[in-house]
Amino acid sequence: MKKLQTLALLSLVTFTAFGQVKLRLPDTTAVPGSSISIPIIVEGFRNVGSLSLTVAFDSRVLTFKGVVNQPQFGFFNSTKPEAANKVGAIGLSWFNVTPSLNIPAGKLLDLLFSYKDGTSPLNFVKMVPSSVTDSLAKNLEATVRNGSISVQTTPSDTVSSPLPRGTKK
Question: Which phi and psi (to 5°) does residue 129 adopt?
Fold first, then answer.
């Protein structure tokens, strides 16, 4: 009986661990006027059949340019840059029946921006249970970690160093 209980508990823990999907946006710095690529990092994307995500940003700080490195199969769609920049949000969707999307840990895609200046949150919004599903349309529990972008600070150009021996000031 004890072995059966242990096996059942182990199966439940394994199922829960495999069913957990994680999405993350990084904290990033950039130089004003530069182009920046922001990855959406995922974990636990096993047998994913669909996703529907929205990423919010401050359009006074960032200008959305598009998406690259998205899945190369299935049906992918994203908000057009003009519309995303008006509302400060990017809608992303993908689905496919077979094959499913399998990314145990890594990058899902990259969001391209022009960075103006200042700080902007990068937030997943409207996360609902059906945001990520498996290939049978079963909801996969998803957790998110939001990110941000801010100005890159550089060390002062005036670095004092000792004069070589025998050199006069």
Answer: -55, -30
Structure-token match 């200008």, residue found: 63
Beta strands in 2-74, from DSSP E residues, in sequence order: 21-24, 27-30, 35-56, 62-68
The predicted structure's pLDDT at residue 26: 97
Residue 22 near residue 143, CB atoms below 8 Å: yes
pLDDT average, residue stretch 90-109 = 94
The 10s digit of each residue's pLDDT in 14-59 is 333 445 899 999 999 999 999 999 999 999 999 999 999 999 999 9
User: How would you classify the pairing of strands 35-56 and 89-95?
Assistant: antiparallel
Q: Are 105 and 20 in contact (CB under 8 A)?
A: no
Domain 34-147, second-level architecture: Sandwich (2.60)
pLDDT at 111: 98
DSSP conformational letter for 139: B
Q: Omega into 164 within 30° of 0, i.e. cis?
A: no
CB contact at 8 A, 69 and 109: yes
Helix (H) or strand (E) segment spanning residue 113: strand 101-115
Q: Counting Cβ atoms within 10 Å, is residue 3 exposed (0-12), middle (13-18) or buried (19+)?
A: exposed
Identify the residue with better confidence: 49 or 160: 49
